[in-house]
Amino acid sequence: MEEQNYAEAQGESVEVDELTEEGRARIRKEQAEMRAHRKPAKGLVMINTGNGKGKTTAALGVLFRAWGHNLRVVMLQFLKSQTGKWGEIRAAQKLGIEIIPLGDGFTWNSDNLEHDKALARKCWQLCREKIESDQYDVVIMDEITYAINYGWLDVNEVLSTLQTRNPKMHIIITGRDAPQALIDYADLVTEMAEIKHPYHEGILAQKGVDF
C-alpha cells in the first residue's frame, strides 16, 4: 500500500500487483532517498487550466480533502451567480464550508460588462482580504483567469499578493487560458484537455454532474 501511495503521489497510475520485484525495489529505494532529502512543507500554487471539463471539480476535490484534515478552506467563485444553488453550494452550506459565489452568471451572455467588471474587482478584493488575513490554509480562486484575460484584473497585482502570502498557504487557481506569468510562478499546473464532450452530441448540463 505504501508503494501504491507513493506512485499515486507522483501522479502515476500504477497497480502494485502489476509491479515486478525490480520495480518494487526501485520504488522503495526512491522512497528512502526522498525521505533522506525531504524538503520542509510549503504552500503550493496550483493551477487547473485547459479547455476540458473538470477544473473546478478538481479544485473542489482538494477543498473537501483539506477540510477533512481540519484545514481552513475557502473557495471564491468569479463567474458563478450569487443567487445560484449549485450542488457544491448546497453541500458546503450543510457542512459549514465557505464557498462564495460573487459573479453574475456567464459573462459572454452579459449585456453589461461594466457591471461584470465591478463584480470581478469585488471578488478579487475579497480574495485579497482572505489571503492577507492569514486565517486560511487553502484559498481557491475559481475562474479568476477569465477576469485577468478580459483585462479586469492585473496579473502582476495577483502575483504580488501570492508572493507576499503566508508561505504555508495553498492557492488553487482555475480557468481556461491561464496567463503564462501565473503558470511560470505556480508549483503545479494541470491542463484539462477535451477529448469528448456530451454537449457536442446535444446533451446539456445535468444536475449533480455539471452543477
From TrEMBL:
Residues 1-22 are annotated as: Disordered. Pfam families: CobA_CobO_BtuR. InterPro entries: CblAdoTrfase_CobA (IPR003724), P-loop_NTPase (IPR027417). PANTHER family: CORRINOID ADENOSYLTRANSFERASE (PTHR46638:SF1). This is Cob(I)alamin adenosyltransferase. It comes from Dictyobacter formicarum.
